[in-house]
Amino acid sequence: MVLRKAATPTGAIRPNADPPTRLLPITGRVADGRGAPIPGVSVVVKNTQIGTITDAGGTFTLNAPDGATLVFSAIGFKGQEVTVGNQTQLTITLADADQNLDEVVVTALGIKKEAKRLGYATAIVNPDQISTNRTVNFVNALQGKIAGVNISSLGTGAAGTSKIRIRGQSSFSGQNSPLIVVNGVPIDNTNFGQNTGTGNDGSIANRDANYSDGGDGLSSINPDDIEGMTVLKGGTAAALYGSRAKDGAILITTKTKGSSQGIGVVFNSNFTADQPLDFTDFQYEYGQGEYGVRPTAPNPTSGVWSFGERFSGQTQVLFGGLTLPYQPVRNRINTFYRDGYTWTNSVSLSSGSDKGGFNLSLANLANNGITRNNTFTRKTINLGFSYNLSPQLTVTGTMNYSNELNRNPPQIAQQDNSTPTVIYTLANSLPLDVLEANQINPTTGNEFVYSRFMNRTNPYFVLNNKFETIRRDRLFGNLTARYNLTDWLYAQVRVGQDYWARDQDYNFPTGQASLAAAPAGFVNGRYVQEARRFRELNTDFLVGANRRFGIFGVDLTVGGNQLYRRSDLNSVAATDFIVRGLYVPQNGRVKDPVYGLSERKVNSLYGAAELSINDFIFLNATVRNDWFSTLAPANRSILYPSLTGSFVFSQALTVPAWLNFGKLRAAYAEVGSDGDVGPYADNLFYGVNANLFPNPAGQGQPVGFITSNTIPSRTLKPSRTAETEVGLELKLLNNRVGLDLAVYRKITSDQIVAAQSSDASGYTSTLINNGKSQNQGVEVLLNLAPVRTKHFTWDITLNGAYNKTKLLRLLSADGFVPNPDPTKPKVPESIVVGTGVFVGDLRQVVGQELGQLYSFGYERDNQGRIVHGSDGLPLRTAAPISFGSALPTHTGG
Questions:
Q1: Please, what is the Cα angle at 328 between 322 and 329, to 5 degrees?
Q2: Is the pLDDT of residue 130 over 50?
Q3: Global pTM?
Q4: Domain annotation for the chain: domains and CATH numbers
Q5: What is the average per-residue pLDDT within 770-796?
């Protein structure tokens, strides 16, 4: 629904403009090549400040001098000039802008450039791609839509975390996520969906094995507020952003003003439904038990294995002596979960004119997840404005506020309290209604254990006894002032801040079987309260100049940035309770307070220079120097350059009529990063023992202690990434076919590796710069427009990418270490970066792709056949073997 006040009938006349001798009332309509109206078209009397913009129907009214020339311009269309003469009614048709020749792209630092000038790969995201495919975290709507960008989520509900990887994973030990920039200012995108509990910069981690998915920073952005988005893929594209953008950057622009004069009101309401999809192919021939044996007594009853006797009408004995038919239970996933839904309502007020405008929006989102006690609500307010205070000075500002409440987000990864893990691993003859009816042992008041595995918590016990609440308030925005000193020289200052407060509390229920038993007089359990505060302040300046000298064009930019980031953590945990089920710190036998503080600062200077020749050859160079507070003074400064070139051969050469556009591009960039280094990695610091004095056993305890087993290193330096890219862009057959091809190679060196230290040092390891990895790949984007008519357009977009990441070096010079069996040759060096209970390891192995999955396999002979023992059972390998990389090599959509 759109309600708009009628456009002002007369154009604005600046006080210092020469008054026209005679004004004619001009009315008109602006449409595209198919006759559809174009709202928001700027209509300005050439060389004056008289102007207006078209309304929702593409119409405008303007008073113009006799014989004036009107200039029509709009994003996505070619500009047009029309001399009025004595006409009073106009019908204007704007042609679509050639996507490559005329399209403007938002690049690093918010600088806008014509797409044809770029010597590196970018991807422009249409806001319709986000708003049409509705997701709470808008980035999930882009899965499979951008070549070389892999987006995955954990399937943990509306507020779940999304992992974004651009051109694979370059660092095997640190951060691999792109930088998120909103309106030119970076914002925090901390991931609270990892079971490691890593904080904003690796320095403050979660204190418990509470592996719920707490979401990330992108979920606080309302997709209705997004005006545009650009993905900078390579190091060259993001070089001016420095270390944080070594894995690319995602630039988001929110709405700052309306498209027409008067007040526009837009209301959106969206409803989506979620249903669990169960495609798991369980076997229903054999039931609960092991080694072909059906349970005939309460113990040992596994409750989780389905390797028992064949179903044939028998009975089975379950926990507590329950005797039930021995038969398969089907559709338990759909039985346990419910249908979810999401309601989103938003309203926005906007106004715009040639002087400026504003956009104010309010939105409310309410979600019920598919897990019965999981809900998520989000309220957002977005304010954007832009105003020309004078012909030279423009002020732009944005403010985004969000309030989120996430109740009982699903647990991930581990077995304790993880309902998805338990539901998927239940014995296929164990009925869910039996678990629901037998949660509490009536004799003890504790959890009724259904399995010999104490950590397989009854999922209904979790639903009814475990709770978690996450509240987050976030405010981020920026203020920009730009002053045009001349028509070719400008200066800009900008300040942006991102602040959020996150309060979380959760419990491990009293009586839970997997928790350690409490001393006499107490009942086991644990309760945690946690308060996090985060603030990031970015202050920057830019000075830019753009001049033409005949066939040459010169564009120069210099600037600087200061980043300050602070993270605070206040937490208290209570263990073992006096009163069952009373979750307050005062009820705990042991109280454990924790306080954490992390500060980080980066100072930067940067510059860019572009030379254009005849508007078809473009050469660009950038340089940036960062000074990191996290490193020792001798190593905290790093300088890195980039070079790009593009050649629009379709303008320089005579080409066939079927070729509308053709461009070759090449780029090289270096980027440094301290992402693998915590703020205090080069210093020795102490912690204070927060436990009781003396301890519960009456023993004394040390008051202070060294908090790390790693030797502080004063020689650490930033890791370094060097990337080379070449590309080809083509537009064919009247722009109905488009091709974008990119080939790249990226080397990341000086990665941080933990080297083993002598026990005599009192430490177990030290950090050194020695790791090295390589990414290389190909990206293809194909755009097709089979049908284009006045009333119907059919567009097809296909993309595909191949990326392979290999570990080149860890610690040893040749990449090999001695074999545990001295009679055998050396083996490739490796490190374990993740473990799975009863499953195996995730390793980084020299000479192999990153993310190798290692586990035990079957012994095989020289012909690949499984070797069996004397009992007829397959033999297991003596050591874990590789089952390949967990990282995808091919992506597309």
A1: 80
A2: yes
A3: 0.83
A4: 2-93 (2.60.40.1120), 816-892 (no CATH)
A5: 87
